[in-house]
Amino acid sequence: MTSPIPPMPIIPAPPGVGTKLMVSVLIVTALLLWWALSAERKRGPILPFILIGTSLSAILLESVFDNTLLYWWPSQNPLALFYSYGREIPWSVVIGYAWLFGGASYFLWRKFERGVTLGQSIAYFFLLVFIDWLAISIAQWTNQSAFYGNQPFQLIGSPLWFSFADAAGGFALGAAMYGLLPHLHGPRKLLLLLLPTFIYGGVLGSTTGPVAQALNSGWSTPVVWLCGAATIALCCILVFVLARILAAVGPRQ
Fold first, then answer.
1. DSSP secondary structure code for residue 38 in this structure
2. Which residues on adjacent β-strands are paired with residue 82?
């Protein structure tokens, strides 16, 4: 038995949209200042490139996944960057991608460089799951944006399955940086501007396949929850495989 897919809610922008944008700008500014004033700058413009690259991935991918995974943004938003798939994508999410995914992936890469055990990698992944869940839940609790429809694993805040997918994307980006950066010299580092789009788009596009089909096909609630569990399982398998490789290769410094 199937159920109809609800239309995307049309909700005007709440008063806090400016605050959310300001917080994202301040976090990104703090990250860049830390990079500029620390020894990290000697490694080259890796952090700035990753921050720009993750923001670019938001512009290219956000509205696509919002459409398939049933996520709304406020309408008539004076702080929107562009309109796509019936949604006004705000500046705050484009800049927020930078600090949440770009910043997290950068710090994961630095941890991987120093060497991590399997257990440490898994712990970092679940920490990233929690941070992502909290950030998205705060947006939902304050009516900044939210998931809608028959979402599985939506118990207190945002649906837990999505935070697993987000965290898997961030973890995979950190692992990709660990594998590729030794081979990116000079102008080749510009590839970091596109790497987040490839990794984040690939990970979310594949791992959210089960739940996206269920949500957009009007399948029954038990089946939707099974598909949500399948998405979580795919994310855990990906992270476990990458964590095993990272633990086996060992530190680079």
1. S
2. 89
DSSP 75: B
In the chain, the amino acid numbered 23 is V
Residue 187 identity (one-letter amino acid) = P
The three-state secondary structure class of 85 is coil
Spatial distance between the Cα atoms of 220 and 150, rounded to a whole number of angstroms? 9
State pLDDT tens for residues 189-206. Answer: 999 999 999 999 999 999
What span, in angstroms and rounded, lies between the C-alpha atoms of 11 and 16? 13
The confidence score (pLDDT) of residue 16 equals 72
Predicted TM-score (pTM) above 0.85: yes
Count the residues in the chain: 253
DSSP state of 149: S
Residue 89 in 3-state DSSP? Answer: strand
**Chain segment 12-66, per-residue pLDDT in tens:** 888 777 888 888 899 999 999 999 999 999 888 999 999 999 999 999 999 999 9
Rounded to whole angstroms, the Cα distance separating 132 from 107 reads 15
